[in-house]
Write a structure and sequence with these properties.
Largest sheet: 2 strands, parallel
Distance between the termini: 55 Å
Number of strands: 4
Strand content: 5-15%
Structural class: alpha+beta
Length: about 230
């Protein structure tokens, strides 16, 4: 078809790429299975790279190339620098993490307000080498570089105390997160598939509760001055 290069706008939509690791108990690594959309993009990129026997062959454009975890940096290299990673023997995530990331255990609050020990990759190591590797494939522009005229942010934090209904619902939500009993939040019994996404359900209800209890159930809860 005569295609020799790809330009991918909003490339962060393809960050959910599959990868393998032995660190299955480490939090914050994202979805190991990835998405079919990201895998299709990898196939397209690899086709061009094999055709021209070269890395790159694609330009990713994004305002948020890395936002949630250090695995996103690894996956960016996996897309763009497979031959160089193979030369460095960092083609798989575990090899890359052994060189550039440091794992540690720290105490965190869980969604049910309990203190638990969590193991995460919290720090980059060999930062100069990693930065040089990253800078080889990136060119970035900030608002300062392009002289973008922006209004000055005037920020005011307002602390709104929870209503009695919200305080009661918070306790129910914590119990729901622990037990999966949907009746606590008015959902009824969860299916097996729903229970896998229990924390997503809890997060969704928490957002609604924080805004207005009537979003939970307009027939049970009434308006309150402290609602947003």
């Amino acid at each position: 078809m005569g295609i020799d290069h790809l330009f991918v706008d909003e490339s962060h939509k393809f960050k959910n790429l599959t990868f393998t690791t032995r660190h299955t108990r480490v939090a914050g690594l994202g979805n190991l299975e990835g998405s079919q959309k990201a895998l299709n993009m990898l196939f397209a990129v690899r086709e061009l790279q094999s055709r021209f026997n070269s890395d790159l062959c694609v330009t990713f454009l994004s305002g948020t190339p890395i936002s949630n975890s250090l695995t996103e940096m690894y996956l960016l290299f996996k897309y763009l620098r497979p031959r160089e990673m193979e030369r460095q023997q960092t083609i798989n995530f575990d090899g890359w993490a052994a060189v550039f990331a440091k794992k540690s255990t720290d105490f965190e609050f869980s969604v049910t307000n309990q203190i638990i020990a969590k193991e995460r990759f919290r720090h980059f190591i060999k930062v100069p080498e990693l930065a040089m590797f990253y800078n080889e494939i990136t060119d970035y522009k900030t608002a300062k570089h392009i002289g973008l005229d922006r209004p000055v942010l005037v920020e005011e934090l307002v602390n709104i105390a929870p209503t009695p209904d919200q305080q009661e619902f918070i306790q129910k939500l914590m119990q729901f997160a622990k037990t999966g009993n949907g009746e606590l939040i008015g959902r009824g019994k969860l299916s097996e598939e729903e229970d896998k996404g229990r924390m997503l359900i809890a997060t969704n209800y928490a957002k609604k509760m924080a805004a207005d209890m009537r979003l939970i159930n307009e027939h049970i809860y009434e308006d309150h001055p402290n609602h947003k």
